[in-house]
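Per your request, structure below.
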């Protein structure tokens, strides 16, 4: 915020080439980190609750708008209008009331008489409109005067700055100062939807928000210097596929002819925009509703079409979510989700079960949490008793925090506590064969796309899906640390094998997994040049294995770490992985480490997905142990820097959408 204000104070004295050069440097750096959410953010495809579709069964809505920023753009408006009119399109022209030019009444009348629209674009277009509430209120009176004088009902702030709550002071039918996704704007918090939505005010009043959903011409052709309209076509085709609104903001200033140096982007824009219109007209003839913004607003305001505020717009107060860490894999999985939710302004209650090194790993990751409950062992009656006891222990903390949503990756205790307290529950899951008692079933489910709806607990309308696997959420941010070898006493010349025993205390355990595990361990311990890192589920399992097979541990052949280790780092420094559990298998697959699953319970859809693509080898017999598992050193490939997970962004957007749906239904 401080840097943004400073920039707009200095902007008038900065030469245009310098401003554009700085924008290009910063935007190109950010582009490499934003490829998972720009130009397409998959989470924005979710239609709002109550959306009825476009008039007359049209596949998508098309809205063309033009922000006129200078005299050059003003002089181009009439020609631009004629171009669009000749191709059968209509659009809206947004003028700055008190900027560097004055809008002739004759031009406004020309636009309106041809069936086009006039809108108000900021007041001074200096980036200071939202500097303070007092300043905005003062400017709002002037903006309302121009709205009335120009017979306009629409507004767009300069530089796409926005505060949807303050905009209720304007006498508007719609605003268009937001976007579905655009990380390159000064205020980059998109509304994450390709649909128009209603922003409710007091006493039933409000306005419609029309986010732009196609990248601006300035971003494509000025900042990134694109030479084709491929990004426009790609985004448009995706919007059509999901039945959304394609809203484009094209600046007439960039269409104007110029002989000045450094204006090559204007030549690009002059040719690209007509090409885009021809693409729309030829490919989607009869399939779109080319509406003026005021017509979209009127349509959305109708009683049967009014849809609620989008999931990621400003909230009047911080909302709190409750995340429960019930098992070891939940810590690395939720770590980036917690950080992302914090970045978006949510408060979090994080609880953790004192079992399987969950708390130790959370401390290692520096996640703030409240330690609640413990593990009650293998006995099924004790497991149920422990589940109920932990739910009872969670309830006072939930009552105090008053979260709006309870989120976990399979915490039955949290689901039970949330159900009893009336807190909506979300189950993230990647194994469809886990069992839940009738009174411990979630209100929502978020699962990988590989898992079919059949077999899940929730009805289809309460199931959300994300691309890839859950390990993609955090594996992309992993960076190797070579110190782990010395930390664990690994031999540099050895072939390192990481082994995870079967979960013998889990309800899905099949004793055949133990047969495969012991057969593998005997074979591996007899093979020359190997060093094994064994990761028992808990101390009880570690003690049992030491007593049963002491020869495995002689001469440092097999190591059990004395403390919690970074699992991804260990896997990366391993040559192969053999595991009886799902998460470690999938982490290894995501890292490209050869991995063999000795799990003999019901194979889930995600594991089949990985096996079909060669990322995971399923071991089904002792013959497979001998014939399919190969001991060899692997060649490690480099990891891409700063890979932002598409799965992460989609999951967080689903959580926000679920929050919004719950608010609407309350």
């Amino acid at each position: 915020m401080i840097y943004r204000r400073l920039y707009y104070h200095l902007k008038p004295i900065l030469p245009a080439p310098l401003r554009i050069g700085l924008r290009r440097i910063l935007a190109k750096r950010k582009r490499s980190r934003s490829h998972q959410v720009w130009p397409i953010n998959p989470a924005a495809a979710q239609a709002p609750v109550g959306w009825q579709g476009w008039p007359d069964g049209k596949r998508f809505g098309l809205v063309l708008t033009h922000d006129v920023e200078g005299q050059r753009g003003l002089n181009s408006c009439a020609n631009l209008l004629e171009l669009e009119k000749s191709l059968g399109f209509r659009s809206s022209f947004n003028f700055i009331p008190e900027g560097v030019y004055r809008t002739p009444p004759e031009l406004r009348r020309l636009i309106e008489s041809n069936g086009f629209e006039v809108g108000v674009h900021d007041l001074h277009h200096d980036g200071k409109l939202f500097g303070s509430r007092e300043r905005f209120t003062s400017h709002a009176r002037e903006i309302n005067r121009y709205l009335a004088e120009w017979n306009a009902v629409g507004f767009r702030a300069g530089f796409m700055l926005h505060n949807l709550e303050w905009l209720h002071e304007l006498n508007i039918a719609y605003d268009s100062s937001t976007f579905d996704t655009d990380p390159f704007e000064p205020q980059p918090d998109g509304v994450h939807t390709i649909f128009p939505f209603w922003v409710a005010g007091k006493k039933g009043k409000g306005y419609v928000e029309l986010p732009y959903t196609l990248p601006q011409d300035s971003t494509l052709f000025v900042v990134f210097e694109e030479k084709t309209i491929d990004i426009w076509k790609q985004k448009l085709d995706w919007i059509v596929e999901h039945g959304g609104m394609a809203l484009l903001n094209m600046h007439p200033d960039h269409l104007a002819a110029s002989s000045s140096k450094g204006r090559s982007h204007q030549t690009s824009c002059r040719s690209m925009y007509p090409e885009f219109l021809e693409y729309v007209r030829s490919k989607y003839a009869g399939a779109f509703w080319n509406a003026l913004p005021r017509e979209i607003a009127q349509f959305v305001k109708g009683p049967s079409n009014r849809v609620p505020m989008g999931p990621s717009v400003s909230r009047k107060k911080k909302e709190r979510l409750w995340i429960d860490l019930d098992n070891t894999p939940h810590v690395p999985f939720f770590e980036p989700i917690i950080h992302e939710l914090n970045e978006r302004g949510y408060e979090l209650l994080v609880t953790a079960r004192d079992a399987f090194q969950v708390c130790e790993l959370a401390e290692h990751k520096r996640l703030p949490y409240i330690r609640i409950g413990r593990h009650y062992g293998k006995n099924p009656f004790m497991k149920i008793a422990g589940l109920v006891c932990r739910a009872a222990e969670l309830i006072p903390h939930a009552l105090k925090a008053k979260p709006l949503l309870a989120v976990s990756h399979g915490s039955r205790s949290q689901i039970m506590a949330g159900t009893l307290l009336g807190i909506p529950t979300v189950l993230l899951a990647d194994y469809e064969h886990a069992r839940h008692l009738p009174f411990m079933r979630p209100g929502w489910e978020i699962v990988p796309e590989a898992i079919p709806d059949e077999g899940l607990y929730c009805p289809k309308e309460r199931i959300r899906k994300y691309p890839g696997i859950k390990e993609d959420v955090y594996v992309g941010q992993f960076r190797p640390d070579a110190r782990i070898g010395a930390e664990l006493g690994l031999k540099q010349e050895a072939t390192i094998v990481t082994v995870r025993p079967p979960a013998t205390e889990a309800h899905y355990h099949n004793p055949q997994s133990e047969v495969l595990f012991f057969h593998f361990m005997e074979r591996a311990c007899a093979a020359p040049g190997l060093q094994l890192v064994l990761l028992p589920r808990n101390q009880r399992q570690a003690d049992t294995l030491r007593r049963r097979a002491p020869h495995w541990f002689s001469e440092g052949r097999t190591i059990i770490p004395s403390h919690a280790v970074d699992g991804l780092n260990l896997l990366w420094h391993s040559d192969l992985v053999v595991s009886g559990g799902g998460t470690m298998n999938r982490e290894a697959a995501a890292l490209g480490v050869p991995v063999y699953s000795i799990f003999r319970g019901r194979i889930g859809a995600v594991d089949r997905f990985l096996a079909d693509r060669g990322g995971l080898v399923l071991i089904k017999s002792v013959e497979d142990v001998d014939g399919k598992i190969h001991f060899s050193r692997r060649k490690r490939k480099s990891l891409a820097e700063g890979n932002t997970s598409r799965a992460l962004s989609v999951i967080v957007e689903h959580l926000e959408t679920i929050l919004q749906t719950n608010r609407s239904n309350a």
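The chain is about 40% helix and 15% strand.

Regards,
D.
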